[in-house]
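Risk register update: the risk of archive-format incompatibility is retired. Evidence:
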Amino acid sequence: MNAEGLLAHYARIADVPDAITRLRRFVLDLAARGKLVTQEQKEEPAAVLLSEIATVKRQWEKVGKIRDRPALPPVNEAEIPFLIPSTWEWVRFAHIADFSAGRTPSRNDMSFWDHADHAWVSIRDMEDGQVLIATKESVSNKARVWVFGSEPEPPGTMLMSFKLTIGKISRLGISAFHNEAIISVRPHLADLDPYLFKVLPQFAREGNCKDAIKGATLNRSSISNILLPLPPLAEQHRIVAKVDELMALCDQLEAARAQREATRDRLAAASLAHLNTPNPRTFPADARFALDALPALTTRPDQIKQLRQTILNLAVRGKLVPQDSADEPAGNILQRLLVAKRIQQEAPKKSRNRSHPEPEHEEGAFNLPTGWTWASTLEVCSHVDSGSTPPAAEMKEGAGDIPFIKVYNLTKTGELDFSVKPTYVSEETHRTRLARSKIMPNDVLMNIVGPPLGKVSIVPDTFPEWNTNQAVVLFRPLPELLPKYLATCLMSTSVLSWIIDLAQQTVGQVNISVSKSRRLPIPFPPPAEQRRIVAKVDKLMVLCDQLEASLTAGESTRRRLLDALLHEALAPVATPTSEHPRAAIPDRQSYQSLSTACQGGPHRWHK
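Archived output:
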């Protein structure tokens, strides 16, 4: 076994998401290749064990304990997937074990079901590698007689799934029947059971048998012909003991990693919480601590999402850039906007926009910096409305006159993705039927039908005009409100939480009305500060992009290093022997570059 490199580099690969799962598979690979424990020359070879198994099988066939099946072909060299020690033998599954599939009583006859007479196992009841002690369903004595025609399988029976989910294995801790997607496995020698329980699933998931059972029915022939490496019986016992020991170690590693991740997550969440709900007296210290601690606590790309949201929340609370006393207070600016709105409302009826009510002012839920004020979306936008869906005959897929935006074109990053199922409407439909939902570049869009709510995008200048349906609301900011700042507000949890609170729940949907969209409270700073905020957010989001890319690249590199280490560890030792012929060695230059990337410096190979 050549596992020293794996152990030496474990600290660098431990944070790969599926590292422990792959280490478990690695242990089983070593076990099945004869690389986990040493071979003892004094032990009888597996050929003697096969002879004993054949004798028992013939005796069982004579007394009718198992059926006399057609003879299986001998194992030929072309079928062998890898080399094994000279004392082992490649065998077909049906040479050493009997198996039978279960049944499912008719669902139309409820007298078969849920009478608690006998447990009935489906794949969802099975926990891989564990003892099964309870089932979700049970069958009656009537089902035992009419459907199964036998007694239930006794406790201790090995079960393995062979349909839909392949190779899931459990052991019965109770008497039970099972369905047709599961087989009961009965080794011809009881002493084979522990070893088969460890290695059978991985070989069931490989080779031709996997392709043969993808259909609606089991293929007994393909199951019977699964190839298994069979060691001497005494070596099987040593293998099982060693696998159990190493799996217990994997359990400890998994628990330690879960605890480490939970601790990181709690510390990161606590740091971000202090920033999202800042205490004016402690905020500078909290911010310094978070900035110092977050790089160490942020180890996964998915954690960057929380950091992005914190940046948005700080931006709309006035905590991201300092206020400038020279800026005109936003309250004065809002008063001018309200006067202009009032004049518009008092204008002759023909010039009114009757789709808009009188602007309403609503207060938000947190204190604002000096110079800021609260404003409703309608107070700082010239137009807030949604569209409608024209008849299908008026819509065009892929090309047309006016691009028609749907919810799936919106993103949570402020950008519009019109490459997803682009849809268009005619110029005439846009000007007439959909006139109220005309969209211009720099309008801010948000979906008001979900889940999820709060996908926000800014309309680019790709087309001079756009349109949308009733699931999207458009905000057209006045010159005093930057579109990117409005988008920042709508994407922040500080505002999104109000949107969710205002939403109505219907079957399979949540939605917010257009009228409520017009009354969303927006923290409104002076325009000059809005520009500073937007510039700072853009700069920090670029840093988040870089950090996310770095974490993704690091995770990819660690994963590739793990691949190389596992490949190297499974490769035979350097000196060929009659028992362990040499197989191909991985490219060491590639391995060295991966190690260097993970380590940050050159890796020296030891000969």
